Amino acid sequence: MSLATGSYTVRSLKDKSIVGRFIEEERSIRPKPIFALPADFPQADNLEFEKQDDGFYRITARGAAVTHRRDLLFADIIDIEDEGSNHKLWRVMRQFRRGENVHTIHLANEQEKGWTVPAPISDWPFGPQVAVKSLTTGPNYDEAELFIISPA
User: Fold this and answer.
1) CA torsion angle for 28, 63, 8, 114 (degrees, to 10)?
2) Pairing state of beta strands 18-21 and 102-107?
3) GO MF terms on file (predicted)?
4) In a domain, 1, yes or no
5) Whole domain around residue 82: which residue ranges?
6) What is the pTM for the complete model shown?
């Protein structure tokens, strides 16, 4: 069953960290990093999932499209879509064997690559930036590659 368009809380299965933008950001128009924030982080973001006609999702964080650059996840403040590009579209795949609401999130055009939490959250001051890398071959995904997506 696919996700309906709506607002969701996204947590890493690995450590229950919350995926979102940091509460304080510099004010430029540069893309803003998407982090795996501590589970008890105050004012954590919900992400908006908008299902497209082709079954992919456009995901936004505080209104900015979630995209990837240099193998890291960002929110693109200036939402300019290159013609023919789908680098802001994601394939959300339910992983039934791993539990309720557990999913992997893949690039729309490269199913072998997707979101992952790269290191223990304790190694970072407020959590690591979510990475976009080659994933383990399913269905045996690493916990760092699995996300609990729950309605907000």
Assistant:
1) -60
2) unpaired
3) serine-type endopeptidase inhibitor activity
4) no
5) 6-151
6) 0.91
